[in-house]
Write a structure and sequence with these properties.
Layout lengths: L7 H6 L1 H14 L6 H14 L3 E5 L2 H11 L7 E5 L4 H8 L4 E5 L20 E7 L8 H11 L2 E5 L7 E2 L2 E2 L6 E5 L13 E5 L2 H10 L4 E3 L2 E2 L10 H12 L1 H18 L21 E4 L3 H10 L29 H9 E4 L7 H13 L1
Parallel strand pairs: 2-3, 2-4, 4-5, 5-8
Antiparallel strand pairs: 1-9, 6-7, 8-9, 10-11, 12-13
Helix pairs in contact: 2-8, 3-8, 4-5, 9-12
The structure holds pyridoxal-5'-phosphate (PLP).
Length: about 350
């Protein structure tokens, strides 16, 4: 048996609905900024209790434009977790602002107790990432942001509908940034993203920024970009959004099987913080002999992934920041130990048990 993250299964589940949505768009004769996007924005905003959603081309665009729309740039600092995907940090550096890294806690999210010591008079925002699908400690982070008059930008690329204290991620801060990359819990069939914002004026700004900086055709208020969520992806996303709850419920059942079944003292299983919602985008375990475990599973036909092997502060592109190995030992330890087990909608019990047995025999 071969087990690896499979996207065909989640397509097959609702294939008839996807096909009719795609045909509807093809037959409509309207492919950019139309009814499907408008409907998706409304439905997604309702789903996460928005109130405003603006569809964009990708999660990275959402992060870049969020920093930009809030007026953060050269000379400003943005606090960001040291263990995150590079895109989070690119959102900051694309605007010539400086990322200030803060170590993660045992739940892999930014350690709120270490944020304040990183704040300077240049700090403008805290960029929170709800990593692997679990919401970060937002009530603490919100208190800190309020105390220091900082913006909060949330990277919700992995956390669609995950809540903290009953409030959905992406609505705690000033801008919630979403990715609909195909592998995400709410994934499109190509690139797509969105922001969630609280106020209409800011939503208007994003609508202009995504469309060359123009609200009225050929009148350009901002030097904007082309970052529009197209009608095809919007129509397909509407289908998946209508099934999102059952897709997440399925993931919750799957993670429970892993949690109950994996009994190997060499493996550290994921933990959930009190009050944190978790939508189980990834099932990430830790192991001191991670590379050995990866190779061993590969030999058995089980393909695992590493999210992420090199923390941003040690990436070549950020050499100019002047960080070195050992600067963020917890993030670096996680990068050396994490392993994401196969975990996808449509995964069968047989496949789950195959992985559990292999992991237990390691
Ligand atoms: C996927 C992801 C992104 C980037 O989203 P894209 O749509 O691929 O640009 C940003 N941050 C995190 C945490 C992600 O997982």
């Amino acid at each position: 048996m071969k087990v690896y993250d499979r996207l065909d299964r989640q397509y097959e589940k609702f294939s008839g609905e996807y096909q009719s949505a795609a045909l509807r768009v093809l037959n409509s004769g309207w492919y950019i900024l139309g009814k499907e996007l408008e409907a998706f924005e409304k439905e997604f905003a309702e789903c996460v209790k928005g109130p405003y959603c603006v569809g964009l081309n990708s999660g990275l665009d959402a992060l870049i434009l969020a920093v930009r729309a809030l007026g953060i740039g050269e000379g400003d600092e943005v606090i960001v977790p040291a263990n995150t995907y590079i895109a989070t940090v690119l959102g900051i550096t694309a605007n010539n602002a400086a990322p200030i890294f803060v170590e993660p806690d045992e739940f892999y999210n930014i350690d709120a107790s270490k944020i304040e010591e990183a704040i300077t008079d240049k700090t403008r925002a805290i960029m929170v990432v709800h990593l692997y699908g679990q919401a970060a400690n937002m009530s603490e982070i919100k208190k800190i942001a309020d105390r220091h008059n900082l913006f909060i930008i949330e990277d919700c690329a992995q956390s669609h509908t995950a809540d903290f204290d009953g409030k959905i991620s992406g609505t705690w801060g000033d801008v919630g940034c979403f990715s609909f990359y195909p592998t995400k819990n709410l994934g499109a069939f190509g690139d797509a993203g969105a922001v969630i914002v609280k106020d209409e004026a800011l939503a208007e700004k994003f609508r202009a920024l995504r469309n060359y900086g123009s609200r009225i055709k050929y009148h350009n208020e901002y030097a904007g970009v082309n970052s529009r969520l197209d009608e095809m992806q919007a129509a397909l996303l509407r289908v998946k959004l209508s099934h999102l709850k059952e897709l997440i419920d399925e993931r919750v059942i799957m993670k429970e099987k892993y949690l109950q079944g994996i009994k190997n003292p060499a493996i550290i299983l994921p933990k959930v913080r009190e009050n944190s919602g978790h939508v189980w985008h990834l099932f990430v375990v830790r192991c001191e002999r991670r590379n050995e475990l990866h190779d061993y599973l590969e030999e058995r036909g089980i393909h695992t992934q590493i999210h992420y092997p090199i923390p941003p502060h040690l990436q070549k592109c950020y050499e100019y920041l002047g960080h070195k190995k050992g600067d963020f030992p917890i993030a670096e330890k996680f990068a050396n130990e994490v392993l994401s087990l196969p975990f996808y909608n449509g995964m069968t019990d047989e496949e789950i048990n195959f992985v559990i047995e292999a992991v237990n025999e390691f």
